[in-house]
């Protein structure tokens, strides 16, 4: 009832605005942002039947984020969970999860190939290289393919300047974090170049065993043959190493005992991505682009999340793994305007070939217990025990074709239709049981939507879209708990995992309620999942994977922006959502008390979340800004059987800065009130299971300096 009431309120408000606007033809439109993510071509927001949000270059520059979560959390309906040292999970139309239901793109091309999702992919990003960020909420598989389920985040890189420019910045906090970032750009005749670099280093932070280093460099080269033809080349190289301090138990959390349970876990990454795109405008109605690309990623880790320990035991298990892949691919796309039927069509063909090698070796750990013997003080690494949890190589071939059309049925009604067919062909050699074979996943996904443009201030849309994602390769070849090794039971794997399928039903709209001052966006959605991959946490904190259930995700997302004047701006956005197991069988064993999760709420799924911010730029103090931001996350269940909740949190961040000529100084105060809170809290389903806390940082003062040079001709 509450959602229906909100919808009626929005609709009535929009109709009032529509009637007022009809009598005032001079009204200025502030809704007409241009996006590229939803349709793969520049499209006005009013003509897209999706919930989409853009973080502008100004927002990126003023936020001065050291980690991507500081930016993404400004998007209504998004929670990017900070796992420390730029590691992260995500929640967009999903609970907070590491599952492969989010697509991360650079300039429209996925950062990872199909089947090799990494929930930490955004730690590779350099904010100095971003022009803007576009976030589409809901499935976009009909144009971008698998993994585009809960949301798609497109990171759009900076283009070369027409004239020489240079920027350098330094940032530091009181907990040992430092970074230096620089970028330079110019155009020389027909040739333009933009280069951005970042080096970050953290030592002796608030949490023990949490040092990390990151070094990135990005380059974009553009050669403009003429005003209709150009060649664009990009290259990224990044290196990352982090101690992985993991979670803490409840007592350590409440005592603010920021001591890691490990001093041996780590994550290290080397990434190289290159892309070359040829673009040709044949005429005003036809445009072709051909992109070839190459990826080379090496990821090695001794993950804190891989530790398996049962309550009261003095021993535990861990793992060391390595996941390496290369990708060779091509994407051909044609944009064609068919004026006679007022239609724009986008069609494309993708081929991606990605060979992979992976191994995971088990290690023995000693668990030193706290007083009482119910929680762990710290673990000691005793070395590998000879058990292989995974050992395989594989080749993933992804072939896809898509088409999307946008037709203006009349001046205020636009029809969008899209479809895509994906084939994932996986051949493998599994060295644990000396087997080889082939797995094939195939799907056709559709999208259809209508935009109703009431006038230039008010519009609605309805949308149906589908999403598809196959199981991740690392999940398929994971040794099932209790098999292989020294168990005496033959090794068993997850060959029977099914692709997850989603159907999304959505209605939304926008309105310019007070001309150039007050705007709103909203979307109501129902996202039904089938074969959604579920990680069932076992008593020893290991996971059993299943994809045999039905889930339902429903909610409302909204944003409101109020521009009182050039001095005062206010925004608020968020979501009210519910994530539920509809039918989910977790065990067929007669001895197991838990047979299914039908009707239970999904864990780590807050019903309410929001982010608001007020910004003040005083006339009496030019070039000064101050902003106060509030992040709210409501309570959520810690386990799948809904017996224990975490209370959630409300925190405040403040940011201020001052520019003098080419110099800017700034200060960000994160967690301004020094609140004790955790980004996520999880536990197994057993009655005696203990909670693990992903603890958030205490109050952090980030100081920075930036120098910009811009020589206009």
What features would you highlight for this structure?
713 residues, mainly beta, Maltoporin, Chain A, 22-stranded antiparallel beta barrel, 5-stranded mixed sheet, 6 helices, disordered N terminus, iron, cell outer membrane, Outer membrane receptor proteins, mostly Fe transport, ion transport, transport
How does this structure look, described?
It is a multi-pass membrane protein. By secondary structure, the chain is mainly beta. The chain has one domain (2-710): Maltoporin, Chain A. It has 6 helices and 38 strands. The strands form 7 sheets. The chain has a 22-stranded antiparallel beta barrel. Strand 11 and strand 12 form a beta hairpin.
> How many distinct beta strands?
38
Tell me, rounded to a whole number, the average pLDDT: 91
Number of helices: 6
Radius of gyration: 25 Å
The backbone outline, from C-alpha atoms, is: globular
CATH architecture: Beta Barrel
Instruction: Characterize the quaternary organization of these chains.
Output: single chain
The structure class reads mainly beta
CA(first)-CA(last) distance? 60 Å
The CATH class designation is Mainly Beta
Q: Helix share of residues? A: under 10%
Q: How do you describe this structure in short?
A:
With 713 residues, this protein is mainly beta. It has six helices and 38 strands. It is globular, with a radius of gyration of 25 Å.
Q: Topology of this structure?
A:
Elements: H1 2-22, E1 34-35, E2 43-44, E3 51-55, H2 57-63, H3 69-72, E4 78-84, E5 87-92, E6 102-106, E7 109-110, E8 130-137, H4 141-144, E9 151-157, E10 165-173, E11 177-188, E12 191-202, E13 212-226, E14 229-243, E15 248-249, H5 250-254, E16 266-283, E17 286-302, E18 315-338, E19 343-369, E20 376-410, E21 413-430, E22 435-455, E23 458-469, H6 473-476, E24 500-514, E25 518-530, E26 534-537, E27 543-546, E28 549-563, E29 568-584, E30 608-616, E31 624-633, E32 636-637, E33 645-646, E34 649-660, E35 663-670, E36 678-682, E37 692-695, E38 700-710
Parallel strand pairs: 6-9
Antiparallel strand pairs: 1-2, 3-8, 4-5, 6-7, 8-9, 10-11, 10-38, 11-12, 12-13, 13-14, 14-16, 15-37, 16-17, 17-18, 18-19, 19-20, 20-21, 21-22, 22-23, 23-24, 24-25, 25-28, 26-27, 28-29, 29-30, 30-31, 31-34, 32-33, 34-35, 35-38, 36-37
């Amino acid at each position: 009832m509450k959602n229906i009431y909100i919808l009626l309120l929005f609709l009535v408000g929009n109709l009032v605005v529509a009637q007022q606007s009809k009598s005032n033809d001079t009204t200025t439109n502030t809704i007409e942002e241009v996006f590229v993510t939803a349709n793969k071509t520049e499209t006005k927001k009013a003509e897209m039947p999706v919930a989409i949000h853009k973080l502008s270059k100004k927002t990126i520059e003023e936020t001065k984020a050291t980690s991507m979560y500081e930016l993404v959390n400004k998007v209504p309906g998004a929670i990017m969970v900070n796992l420390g040292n730029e590691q992260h999970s995500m929640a967009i139309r999903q609970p907070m999860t590491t599952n492969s239901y989010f697509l991360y793109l650079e300039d429209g091309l996925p950062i990872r190939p199909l089947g090799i999702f990494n929930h930490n992919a955004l730690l590779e990003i350099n904010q100095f290289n971003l022009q803007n960020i576009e976030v589409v909420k809901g499935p976009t598989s009909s144009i971008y393919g698998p993994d585009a389920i809960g949301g798609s985040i497109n990171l759009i890189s900076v283009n070369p300047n027409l004239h020489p420019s240079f920027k350098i910045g330094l940032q530091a906090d009181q907990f040992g974090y430092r970074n230096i970032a620089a970028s330079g750009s110019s155009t020389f005749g027909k040739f333009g170049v933009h280069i951005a670099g970042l080096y970050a280093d953290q030592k002796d932070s608030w949490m023990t065993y949490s040092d990390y280093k990151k070094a990135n460099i990005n380059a974009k080269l553009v050669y403009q043959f003429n005003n209709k033809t150009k060649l664009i080349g990009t290259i990224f190289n990044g290196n990352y190493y982090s101690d992985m301090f993991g979670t803490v138990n409840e007592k350590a959390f409440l005592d603010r005992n920021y001591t890691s349970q490990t001093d041996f876990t780590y994550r290290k990454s080397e990434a190289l991505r290159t892309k070359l795109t040829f673009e040709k405008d044949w005429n005003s109605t036809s445009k072709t682009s051909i992109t070839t690309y190459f990826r080379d990623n090496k990821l090695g880790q001794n993950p804190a999340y891989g530790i398996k320990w049962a309550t009261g035991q003095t021993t535990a298990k861990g793992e060391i793994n390595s996941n390496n892949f290369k990708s060779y691919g091509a994407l051909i796309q044609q944009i064609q305007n068919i004026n006679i039927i007022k239609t724009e069509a986008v069609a494309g063909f993708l081929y991606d070939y990605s060979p992979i090698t992976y191994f995971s070796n088990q290690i023995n750990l000693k668990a030193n217990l706290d007083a009482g013997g119910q929680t762990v003080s710290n673990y000691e690494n005793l070395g590998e025990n000879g058990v292989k949890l995974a050992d395989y190589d594989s080749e993933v071939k992804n072939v896809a074709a898509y088409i999307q059309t946008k037709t203006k049925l009349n001046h205020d009604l636009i029809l969008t239709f899209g479809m895509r067919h994906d084939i994932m062909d996986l051949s493998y050699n599994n060295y644990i049981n000396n087997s080889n074979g082939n797995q094939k996943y195939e799907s056709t996904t559709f999208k259809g939507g209508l935009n109703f443009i009431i006038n230039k201030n008010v519009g609605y849309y309805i949308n149906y879209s589908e999403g598809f994602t196959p199981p991740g390769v690392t999940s398929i070849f994971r040794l099932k708990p209790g098999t292989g090794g020294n168990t005496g039971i033959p090794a068993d794997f997850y060959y029977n995992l099914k692709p997850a399928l989603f159907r999304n039903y959505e209605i939304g709209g926008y309105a310019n309620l007070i001309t150039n001052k007050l705007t709103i966006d909203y979307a109501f959605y129902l996202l039904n999942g089938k074969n959604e991959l579920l990680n069932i946490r076992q008593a020893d904190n290991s996971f059993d994977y299943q994809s045999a259930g039905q889930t339902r995700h429903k909610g409302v997302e909204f944003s409101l922006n109020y521009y009182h004047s050039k001095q005062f701006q206010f925004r608020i956005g968020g979501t009210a959502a519910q994530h539920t197991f509809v039918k989910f069988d977790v065990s067929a064993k007669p001895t197991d008390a838990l047979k299914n999760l039908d009707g239970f709420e999904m864990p780590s799924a807050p019903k309410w979340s929001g982010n608001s911010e007020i910004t003040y730029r005083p006339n009496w103090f030019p070039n000064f800004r101050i902003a106060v931001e509030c992040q709210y996350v409501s309570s959520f269940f810690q386990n799948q059987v809904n017996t224990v909740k975490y209370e959630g949190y409300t925190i405040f961040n403040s940011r201020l800065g001052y520019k003098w000529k080419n110099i800017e100084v700034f200060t960000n105060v994160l967690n301004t009130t020094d609140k004790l809170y955790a980004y996520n809290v999880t536990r197994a389903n057993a009655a005696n299971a203990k909670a693990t806390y992903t603890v958030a940082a205490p109050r952090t003062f980030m100081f920075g300096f930036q120098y910009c040079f811009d020589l206009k001709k």
